[in-house]
Structure formats: C-alpha cells, structure tokens
C-alpha cells in the first residue's frame, strides 16, 4: 500500500477524476488506524464478510483473505482492467496500471 501512497499523485492524478478504494477483510477499526498512521490519501473499505472479494473472485477461501487483485473500473461502472494478482514489487505493474488508468480516462 505504501507504493500506492508514494505514487498516488502520478498514477492516480491526485484523485482528479479517479477514486482509489482499497478493500480488505480487516475490520474497519484496524483499517482506519493503519490508514491514518501511514497517511494514505485514498479510501479503505472493510469487507469482513468477504462479500465483495467473493463477488469479484478476489477472496481466497483457503487463507480467508482477499488476494492482491486490482481492478480499474471505468466511470460507467464497467471493469476496464484486471491485474490478478497485482505484483506490487514489480515496477512494470505500475507502468501497466498507469496505462490502464490513462486509457480509461481517455475513453470516458
């Protein structure tokens, strides 16, 4: 998540026309504390019942967590890009993500 924070301005256009939501099975109290302490400039959502993770195929039943799956959703609500899993330590992942975001913003 630190990489998202550190690249937020460039990748996510400082939130101009883009909403970044990190969804986790962690309780909201833990997410809030962590997000506040790390000064993340984006939203977090708690999915303790794994409803969202299961609906989008991001939940690992074996480990009871959401996998690091990344979705770019176009303004109309259609999923425009999926990275499953998103490889946060690979710099090319951010290059691909940036292209997907730019492409989605241009198309809509």
Indicate the topology.
Elements: H1 2-6, H2 8-11, E1 21-24, H3 28-38, E2 43-46, H4 51-55, E3 59-60, E4 65-66, E5 70-73, E6 79-83, H5 91-107
Parallel strand pairs: 1-2
Antiparallel strand pairs: 3-4, 5-6
Question: How is this structure best described in words?
Answer:
The protein is α+β, with helices and mostly antiparallel strands. The protein has one domain (2-107): 3-Layer(aba) Sandwich (Glutaredoxin), CATH 3.40.30.10. Helix content is 39%, strand content 19%. It is built from five helices and six strands; from the N terminus they run H-H-E-H-E-H-E-E-E-E-H. It has helices spanning 2-6, 8-11, 28-38, 51-55, 91-107, and strands at residues 21-24, 43-46, 59-60, 65-66, 70-73, 79-83. A two-stranded parallel sheet has the order 1-2. Strands 3-4 form a two-stranded antiparallel sheet. A two-stranded antiparallel sheet has the order 5-6. Strand 3 and strand 4 (65-66) form a beta hairpin.
Number of distinct beta strands: 6
Helix content: 25-40%
What's the pLDDT, averaged over the residues?
A: 89
With strands numbered from the N-terminus, the spatial order across the biggest sheet is 1-2
- Give unreliable regions as ranges: none
The helix count comes to 5
CATH C-level class: Alpha Beta
Strand content: 15-25%
CATH architecture descriptor name? 3-Layer(aba) Sandwich
CATH fold node name? Glutaredoxin
Question: Biggest β-sheet: count, sense, barrel?
Answer: 2 strands, parallel
Task: Give Rg in angstroms.
Answer: 14 Å
Give the domain tally.
1
End-to-end Cα distance, whole Å, is: 27 Å
- Helix/sheet category: alpha+beta
